[in-house]
Specification:
The structure holds 2 protein chains of 2 kinds.
Chain A lengths: L1 H33 L4 H6 L7 H11 L5 H13 L13 H36 L4 H14 L3 H15 L20 H35 L2 H9 L3 H23 L1 H14 L5 H11 L2 H29 L1 H11 L1
Chain B lengths: L1 H35 L31 H37 L1 H15 L3 H11 L3 H29 L2 H8 L4 H38 L10 H8 L9 H28 L1 H4 L2
Helix pairs in contact in B: 1-2, 1-9, 2-3, 2-5, 2-7, 2-9, 3-5, 4-5, 5-7, 7-8, 7-9, 8-9
Classes of the chains: A mainly alpha, B mainly alpha.
Chain lengths: 332, 280
């Protein structure tokens, strides 16, 4: 019974995903079709030796003179078959470029994600338990400021404080200068990861912290906590038995739902710290008109965000029995 | 608890109103001041390059000796202008879709819902970037991009509200009298969602100006000759490694202040309009 429900749940999600990714492909293609970027010019770059005739040949070779619908279908089917085209700025296969860059970005985003999750949860817990007190006001006020802080400015601030003033970290670049890429050690990479990850993590705290705080306040005012107090439970026991249980699942789910902001933030942090990840690559691709790479990254980002949402839904499905009931009713 | 607060209520309302009007006045002053700063005020003075913040130039000076305070205020006024445009357009879109979708119902409602999910499933920065590229950069692309990502939250709020009103007695009676959907939307539903709209316009504003500054910083928004905050900050990136911290710190902090002031106005208006809802 349970596995059947799960199967239906997953297949429903899969169907939605297929619809979503198709829509994203159509919209991205349409937007790029509208853009004034000429693929041939983007491809030959500043090379003036390419004559108009040769340009004509290139565009014919790519099928640029065919109608948009036909070209979309050609592009879409090659995406499906795993051929994502060639990046114009890297002159390499798009999937290959995305693969390398995505790994670097994943390390950055994962570090920031864990950092913001843990710190945000703890701060939210603290603020919620001290509702209305000074600690709560400070933490909540700080979070409200954080929400209004653009990620890139946070990054600039971190560079000024930690790199320029305290000289603790290098200013930029994912690897040391003057070292061949094969000799870059893991320690080097980790060392250069710390500052961007902290900057990204710090801006991510606000949401999770405010959410946790709200939940904790709600739980602390609930009747079961009042009853627990009346029974003589100590605050530490109440936190462990009642607050943590009720607050941690929504917090974890919210963290998974924040993949979209995480990716968006990573774009800015990577750009500010010149970290060689997907974010700084997408900016380069956008500015230089590298459409195959740009569209590839958009698709990957959608997959990334969707998998976060899916994990959040699955967590709820597995842990909270009410969702299962609700889902069954909705489908029935 | 509630009874005890009643005598104070007037005081709280008065205080809230005061804070809303103070912040609004401040923003208006910055806007007018910024708009009145012309090119001639931002003259190049190579004797005063990279001056640290002092009494003469409280925000310091930049790489050609221009006063950073004037540049920042000018940038802020541009941000405010763009922010107002973006939030008004987003709200208009959110209002139309949020009211009409549940009223028409059926596949239209499903489609609008799906559209909201679609927009939420792509990182916003990427959407604005794509739209901006499609429009060939510049102000128009930026505004369309920000509107395309910011109509969703308000659409959801209004849609939920309209679903409730739709089930109310007076709407049903009105429909039985043969009134059209458009009539019901205009006469019964629109007046009810005005509070949400007002709060929505104000609360979208800070998001919009932050997005504008961020995208401009990346190079997808306004062109480099515009006096925008994003441009000032991306310029400052060249000089912060040599210790010119004031080029980045003050303009960014000023932008955050504006965005904080506007969110505070939004929250306070919400409190004034629906005191019960804001306690939740």
């Amino acid at each position: 019974m349970k596995s059947k429900g799960l199967l239906r749940f997953i297949s429903g999600k899969l169907l939605r995903f297929i619809l979503l990714i198709t829509a994203v492909c159509v919209i991205t293609f349409a937007l790029m079709e509208l853009s004034p970027i000429d693929p041939v010019t983007a491809y030959v770059g500043a090379n003036t030796k390419v004559s108009a005739e040769q340009r004509q040949l290139i565009s014919e070779h790519w099928g640029l003179n065919k109608p948009p619908l036909e070209r979309f279908w050609a592009w879409f089917s090659s995406i499906l078959s795993g051929d994502w085209g060639t990046s114009m700025i890297y002159r390499r296969d798009v999937l290959e470029v995305i693969g390398t860059k995505f790994r670097a970005s994943l390390a950055l985003m994962f570090a920031a994600w864990v950092f913001s999750g843990v710190l945000g949860f703890l701060l939210g817990l603290w603020a919620g338990l001290r509702e209305g007190k000074l600690a709560d006001k400070l933490i909540s006020g700080y979070c409200h400021i954080l929400i209004s802080t653009p990620t890139f400015w946070m990054g600039i601030l971190f560079i000024i404080v930690f790199s320029v003033w305290l000289k603790l970290f290098p200013v930029a670049l994912g690897v040391p200068i003057g070292v061949i890429s094969a000799e870059v050690t893991l320690a080097d990479k980790l060392y250069r990861l710390i500052l961007p990850a902290l900057a990204l993590g710090f801006t991510g705290i606000a949401n999770i912290c405010l959410h946790t705080r709200g939940k904790v306040v709600e739980v602390m005012h609930s009747e079961y906590v009042i009853f627990a107090r009346a029974r003589g439970e100590r605050t530490s026991q109440i936190i462990l038995r009642h607050v943590m249980k009720n607050v941690s699942l929504p917090a974890v789910t919210l963290q998974f739902l924040s993949f979209s902001e995480l990716f968006g933030g990573a774009i800015f942090v990577e750009q500010v710290f010149s970290y060689p990840g997907l974010g700084s690559t997408v900016v380069q691709a956008g500015l230089k008109g590298d459409l195959p790479l740009l569209m590839g990254i958009v698709i990957i980002s959608v997959v990334f965000v969707y998998s976060g949402n899916l994990i959040a839904d699955l967590l709820y499905w597995l842990i909270d029995p009410r969702i299962k009931e609700g889902y069954r009713h909705e489908r029935a | 608890m509630k009874e005890r607060k009643t005598p104070l209520l007037r005081g709280i309302r008065a205080r809230t109103l005061l804070s809303v009007s103070c912040f609004a006045a401040l923003i208006l002053i910055i806007f007018i001041w910024g708009s009145s700063i012309g090119e001639s005020d931002l003259f190049v003075d190579l004797n005063k390059v990279f001056l640290k913040p002092s009494a003469d130039h409280i925000f310091g000076t930049d790489w050609v000796g221009r006063d950073m305070l004037l540049r920042t205020v000018k940038g802020l006024s541009l941000s405010i202008k763009i922010g107002v445009l973006c939030s008004v357009f987003s709200c208009a879109m959110g209002m139309v879709l949020g009211i009409l979708a549940p009223l028409i119902g059926g596949w239209v409602d499903t489609f609008v819902n799906w559209l909201v999910d679609l927009v939420l499933s792509i990182p916003h920065t990427l959407v604005v970037m794509l739209v901006s590229i499609a429009c060939g950069g510049g102000l128009r692309g930026l505004i369309i991009g920000v509107v395309a990502t910011h109509w969703t939250s308000l659409t959801r709020v209004i849609r939920a509200e309209v679903l409730q009103i739709k089930e109310s007695e007076y709407t049903k009676v009105s429909r039985k009298f043969g009134k059209s959907t458009l009539y019901i939307a205009r006469e019964h539903i629109f007046p009810q969602v005005i509070p949400q709209l007002v709060v929505g316009v104000v609360l979208i504003f800070p998001h919009a100006i932050l997005h504008e500054a961020s995208l401009t910083f990346l190079g997808f928004g306004l062109p480099a000759h515009e006096p925008a905050i994003g441009i000032i900050l991306s310029e400052s990136m060249k000089y912060i490694t040599s210790g010119k911290w004031w080029l980045a710190v003050f303009p960014g902090a000023a932008l955050i202040c504006i965005s904080l002031m506007v969110s505070s106005i939004g929250r306070n208006i919400q409190k004034l309009i629906s005191p019960s809802a804001s306690h939740k």
